[in-house]
């Protein structure tokens, strides 16, 4: 657009979108005479920061070191720009080598770095700040969420050890997290005298402190066995009533 005697931009310019503009300007004097001249305006490309969206992946908790989790990718409108990837670390003394996951700088490949950190019962997911950097040092940040998937582990049963069957929706049932993983498992409950009070094959989080005969069991400590014939979990569960 022309303002006074100046030719000014009317909108943002993008060399990658349109690098050349053919302009024709006509000037008219008071007598009506005109003069027209055409010229070309070249938009000079400057380096622009890369962009990257958030990413979310999942990995089993029994994964081994080096297992590929996924790949993060950024974009850059500057053709041929080289991108690198990393975690955002604000503490200069932080030990990146101890992180549960690593990132290959040149490819954005995310992999398991410390499998000992993968424990569904302790952390169901990890969230990291990540960044993509171009060759000139321009940076964009995003978030990386990695979910830890539960797997059946010998000796580790993710279950609430206290039930309060009062119908308030909290700890009303003996609930095993991700019960769908435990196909063919049977739950057996015993009282303090070793007498079986409840048994359910293909258990699906139904027990709420009631015996197989329909009797509400007294508050106290009970013992459970949960098995499919090969894997056995056992422990205590306490019934609490107000």
Descriptive overview:
There is one protein chain. This protein has 242 residues and is mostly beta strands. It has strands at residues 2-3, 6-7, 20-28, 34-42, 55-60, 68-71, 84-87, 101-103, 109-112, 125-133, 139-149, 162-163, 186-190, 196-200, 220-227, 232-239. The strands form 5 sheets. It has a 5-stranded mixed beta sheet, with no helix packed on it. A hairpin with a 2-residue loop joins β1 (2-3) and β2. The N and C termini lie far apart (78 Å). The model has no long low-confidence stretch (mean pLDDT 91).
Give the strand order, joined by hyphens, for the main sheet.
12-16-15-13-14
Helix content: under 10%
Low-confidence stretches: none
Largest sheet: 5 strands, mixed
Per DSSP, what share of the residues sits in E-state strands of 2 or more residues? 35-45%
Number of helices: 0
Shape: elongated
The CA-CA distance between the termini, in Å, is 78 Å
Coarse structural class: mainly beta
Mean pLDDT: 91
H/E element string? EEEEEEEEEEEEEEEE
The total count of strands amounts to: 16
Radius of gyration, in Å, reads 32 Å
Describe the structure using short key phrases.
242 residues; 4-stranded mixed β-sheet; 16 strands; elongated
Gist of the model:
The protein has 242 residues and is an all-beta fold. It has strands spanning 2-3, 6-7, 20-28, 34-42, 55-60, 68-71, 84-87, 101-103, 109-112, 125-133, 139-149, 162-163, 186-190, 196-200, 220-227, 232-239.
């Amino acid at each position: 657009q022309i303002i006074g005697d100046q030719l000014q931009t009317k909108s943002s310019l993008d060399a990658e979108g349109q690098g050349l503009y053919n302009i024709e300007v006509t000037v008219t004097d008071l007598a009506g005479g005109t003069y027209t001249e055409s010229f070309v305006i070249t938009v000079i490309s400057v380096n622009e920061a890369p962009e990257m969206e958030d990413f979310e992946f999942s990995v089993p908790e029994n994964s081994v070191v080096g297992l590929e989790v996924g790949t993060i990718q950024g974009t850059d409108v500057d053709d041929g720009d080289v991108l690198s990837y990393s975690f955002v670390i604000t503490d200069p003394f932080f030990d990146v080598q101890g992180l549960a996951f690593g990132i290959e700088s040149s490819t954005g490949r995310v992999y398991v770095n410390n499998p000992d950190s993968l424990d569904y019962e302790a952390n169901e997911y990890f969230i990291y700040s990540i960044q993509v950097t171009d060759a000139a040092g321009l940076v964009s940040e995003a978030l990386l969420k990695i979910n830890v998937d539960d797997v059946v582990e010998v000796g580790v049963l993710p279950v609430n050890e206290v039930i309060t069957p009062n119908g308030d929706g909290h700890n009303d049932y003996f609930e095993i997290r991700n019960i769908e993983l435990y196909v063919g498992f049977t739950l057996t409950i015993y009282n303090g005298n070793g007498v079986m009070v409840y048994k359910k094959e293909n258990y699906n989080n139904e027990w709420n402190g009631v015996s197989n005969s329909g009797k509400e069991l007294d508050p106290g400590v009970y013992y459970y066995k949960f098995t499919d014939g090969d894997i056995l979990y056992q422990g205590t569960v306490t019934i609490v009533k107000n």
